Amino acid sequence: MIRAWSKRTVLDLVRDKFSGYLFVVVSNRQPYIYKFVKGRIECMKGPGGVITALDPVMCELKGLWVASGSGEADRLVARDSKVRVPPQEESYTLKYVWLTKEENLGFYYGFSNQALWPLMHLVYVRPQIKEEDWQVYKKVNKKFAQSVYKEVKDKKAIVFFQDYHLALGSLYLKELKPDAITLFFWHIPWPPYDVFRILPQRVEFLKGLLSYDLLGFHIRYFGNNFLEAVASELEAKVNKENSSVTFQSHTSLVRAYPISVDFEGISQKAKSLEVEKAMRSLKEDFSLEGKKIIVGLDRIDYTKGIIERILGVDKLLELYPSLKGKIVFVQVGEISRIHLSQYKKLNDEINALVEEVNFRHRKGSWRPIVFVRRHLSFSELLAFYRLADICLVTSLHDGMNLVAKEFVSSQVEERGVLVLSKFTGAARQLKEALIVNPYSREEVALVLYRALSMREEEIKERMRRLRQSVRVNNIWKWIGKIIADIPLPKF
Ligand code: GDG
């Protein structure tokens, strides 16, 4: 059995490599959010893949996380804009950057999510690129850099910026502190050059990214697309052999690091009494007893293929009406970015389609689709993964997709099947999943049918191999490989 990376291996590496350095993570979204619930302040863990991946790492590294404060009670818990998190463990410091409403509109809703998000995902949603949003995007990137600078100015620092919101963070930080070592992880896809080149600000954007010392993408293909954009737009030396770019005498390493999950942590938690209790109550609440359960779980986003998934289930019941009353498709979907019209429209479309499909196939009190619109606790989430006979991931384009890896990690009894879109980064690693093209509802239906009729031994064998793959390619390997590659100056 191959020895897997663990917290221990990463900590040993950190101790070796980071002595004397402060480790800083910078992201738009905060890892913990303070809100009022029934008049009392409560702390909740933020949603999304970036936090899922980095929070356990930060708990171990005990560094500083800089993020925008968007919770209504954040200002009340912060002292000097800082708070210790997680609430009971207080392992690291969270520092808030406070954004005005205008900054949020131009930076987050505008340039990040109406221009970059659709541009980078190949889902035929037209990017809305506005010069005024770009100006705010730059201003906010500078604000983040200044906030980091205040904490690291007299220190040796390694600063790890996250995602498409903060592409220019290193540029502005290095103007203030040229010796900062900067890393960046791009959590979403990077498209082929013909798509990227429509961005009017592409040269400035690429120059910003090339101020990082290390740039990470989920898979080599995205990194190669980035290198192609650089080679086409800038007078830079692209070295494909060691995957680096030298531009204006600064070298950036460009590497692939497939993000993952804490396999051991999730597996342990999935076996806990708390999760087993949650399984019993979810079964009861949603009348799942005796049914084959198909589970989907996503932020409501047009990249996730939720409509396509519902159409696939619709087709399944049309082709195999004998399944009526025997299966239930549970879709968990938290609303996100609802202030943007495309998201509101998508949410309305999903609601209407669920109604329509449920109406078409209903039988007595049975309905094929249960839509859970609320945020689930981590235990409930794992309970759904454990209850699932099938986990259905139908993204139209996805950098990695952590849901697929969480499902595999939770499958301690090895009894579920993963149906996975070929357009996810995860599909390049999880070869024992049933791979599907979500654009074909017939294909989704047939693959679901195949999963529903799969023999127990085959299910077990596939899941055993999937678990072995995620066990080895876990979150500790992701961060460990990044840390190992950080180009520290030699003295
Ligand atoms: C981006 C990239 C890449 C969802 N609902 C609940 C909940 N979640 C958690 C899931 C999972 C995370 O949110 C979603 O992660 P994904 O990877 O699927 O997707 P994005 O948010 O789009 O993430 C993606 C990722 O960054 C990491 O690089 O994989 O490609 O798009 O962890 O479990 N968690 C809880 N309750 C919910 O209701 N507790």
Summarize the SSE layout with pairings.
Elements: H1 7-17, E1 21-26, E2 32-37, E3 40-45, H2 49-61, E4 64-68, H3 74-77, E5 82-85, E6 92-97, H4 101-120, H5 131-152, E7 156-162, H6 169-176, E8 181-185, H7 193-196, H8 202-209, E9 214-217, H9 220-233, E10 237-239, E11 244-247, E12 250-256, H10 263-270, H11 273-285, E13 292-299, H12 306-319, E14 327-334, H13 341-361, E15 369-372, H14 378-387, E16 390-393, H15 402-410, E17 417-421, E18 434-436, H16 441-452, H17 456-472, H18 475-485
Parallel strand pairs: 1-4, 1-7, 4-6, 7-8, 8-9, 9-12, 13-14, 13-16, 14-15, 16-17, 17-18
Antiparallel strand pairs: 2-3, 5-6, 10-11, 11-12
Helix pairs in contact: 1-18, 4-5, 5-6, 10-15, 11-14, 12-13, 12-16, 14-15
GDP-alpha-D-glucose is lined by residues 47-50, 52-53, 187-188, 259, 297, 299, 332, 334, 375-376, 378, 381, 398-403, 406.
Overview of this protein structure:
With 491 residues, the protein is an alpha/beta fold. The protein folds into two domains: 7-260 and 476-485, 3-Layer(aba) Sandwich (Rossmann fold), CATH 3.40.50.2000; 263-472, Glycogen Phosphorylase B (Rossmann fold), CATH 3.40.50.2000. 45% of the residues lie in helices and 19% in strands. It contains 18 helices and 18 strands. It has helices spanning 7-17, 49-61, 74-77, 101-120, 131-152, 169-176, 193-196, 202-209, 220-233, 263-270, 273-285, 306-319, 341-361, 378-387, 402-410, 441-452, 456-472, 475-485, and strands spanning 21-26, 32-37, 40-45, 64-68, 82-85, 92-97, 156-162, 181-185, 214-217, 237-239, 244-247, 250-256, 292-299, 327-334, 369-372, 390-393, 417-421, 434-436. It has a ten-stranded mixed sheet. A hairpin with a 4-residue loop joins β10 and β11 (244-247). α10 (263-270) packs across α15. It is globular, with a radius of gyration of 23 Å. The mean pLDDT is 95. Bound molecules: GDP-alpha-D-glucose. GDP-alpha-D-glucose is lined by residues 47-50, 52-53, 187-188, 259, 297, 299, 332, 334, 375-376, 378, 381, 398-403, 406. The site of GDP-alpha-D-glucose has 24 residues, from α2, β13, β14, α14 and α15.
